[in-house]
Automatic annotation (TrEMBL):
<protein>
    <recommendedName>
        <fullName>GST N-terminal domain-containing protein</fullName>
    </recommendedName>
</protein>
<dbReference type="InterPro" id="IPR036249">
    <property type="entry name" value="Thioredoxin-like_sf"/>
</dbReference>
<feature type="domain" description="GST N-terminal">
    <location>
        <begin position="11"/>
        <end position="92"/>
    </location>
</feature>
<dbReference type="InterPro" id="IPR004045">
    <property type="entry name" value="Glutathione_S-Trfase_N"/>
</dbReference>
<dbReference type="Pfam" id="PF13409">
    <property type="entry name" value="GST_N_2"/>
</dbReference>
Length: 260
């Protein structure tokens, strides 16, 4: 029996490593943080509603989802982070930001860090196009990654995107969206400036960092040039943070960024 945890991940094709789901990146980084062996299972949007629903027996499943060696499925990146925190107590905490094992952490410290992470997760970390700029801005690039007739019909449908949603998304003012995306990133630069040589979670990286890095990685996977303009060119504090997290865990993220 395979003893390794499976991470179900969105990808353009079974052989592509262009992992563009921001939420799945959160889990990828938290698995690495907790030193967990895992393998990536690339799937597409139709597989989520088809095969993954059947395999997991969970009608509302989304990615990221992990499958444990005993066949249990856990989904929602935040629920997975909490599960990792509880089940890998000898590894450093995802929520305290002090680099110490979860086992030794005070529960108040974990609770505060967890609440901070949750707030960022529901805010900056969410993709809701009603208010977040990210989905709209990178929609044309994402659209290019949706391959295959059946997949495209589903992805571009009004039932998914609302009445004429596809045409509306492609017609948006990209310059204005870019300006707003940069505004979204400004508080991050400011925060790092106020906490020199630290991470968002604390002196060590944690779930807050992985949530923000997930947003960066989504952009980076879809359009490296635009990403550079929005993220890297806004301040060296943020570009240093990006570099450090890209190189972390044996350069896991960097390796994926360079892989196509
Ligand atoms: N709050 C969830 C959000 C998960 C989510 O929205 N995942 C998207 C991909 S980034 C998804 O599975 N979408 C399925 C679909 O659009 O059909 C989490 O953090 O895991």
């Amino acid at each position: 029996m395979n003893r390794v945890i499976k991470l179900y991940e969105l990808a353009p094709s079974p052989t592509s490593t262009r992992y563009y789901s921001p939420t799945t990146w959160k889990t990828r980084m938290s698995l690495l943080h907790k030193n967990v062996d895992f393998e990536t299972v690339p799937i597409n949007f139709l597989d989520i509603r088809g095969d993954l629903v059947i395999r997991s027996g969970q009608a509302n499943i989304t990615v990221p989802a992990i499958e444990l060696p005993d066949g249990t499925f856990i989904y929602d990146s935040f629920r997975i982070a909490e599960w990792l925190e509880d089940n890998y107590p000898d590894e450093s905490s995802l929520f305290t930001g002090d680099g110490k094992p979860s086992r030794d952490a005070h529960s108040e410290h974990v609770a505060t860090g967890r609440n901070y992470a949750r707030l960022i997760d529901l805010g900056l970390g969410a993709s809701k196009s009603e208010w977040a700029v990210w989905y709209d801005l990178f929609f044309p690039q994402l659209d290019q990654q949706i391959i295959g007739e059946e997949q495209r019909i589903y992805f571009t449908s009004d039932s998914r995107l609302g009445p004429h949603g596809y045409q509306k998304l492609l017609a948006l003012d990209r310059q204005e969206l870019t300006r707003r995306a940069k505004m979204n990133v400004q508080p991050l630069v400011e925060f790092l400036r106020e906490h020199p040589n630290q991470y968002f979670q604390g002196t060590h990286p944690g779930q807050v960092d992985y949530i923000i890095f997930g947003r960066y990685a989504y952009c980076r996977m879809l359009d490296p040039v635009l990403t550079n303009e929005i993220w890297n060119e806004q301040g060296e504090e943020l570009s240093n943070w990006i570099r450090i997290l890209s190189q972390a865990y044996n350069g896991h993220a960097q390796h994926l960024f360079d892989s196509f």
